[in-house]
Amino acid sequence: MTTCICRRALAADETLCHRCRAATLGRLRRMSALYRLLEPELQPSAGASSYGRVALVEAPLPVSLRVLTLRGPGGIVGVLEKWWAAMQASRCGSAPAISGTIEERVGTAASSLAFHLDYIVTWAQAGSLVTEIRQLDEEALAIVAPADTREHGKRLGPCPAETSTGTLCGAVLRYYRDYSPKTVTCPWCATVYPPDSWADLKAWMEHDQEEGELLAAV
Question: For the chain, which residues make up each domain, given as ranges?
Answer without folding.
Answer: 1-150, 152-218
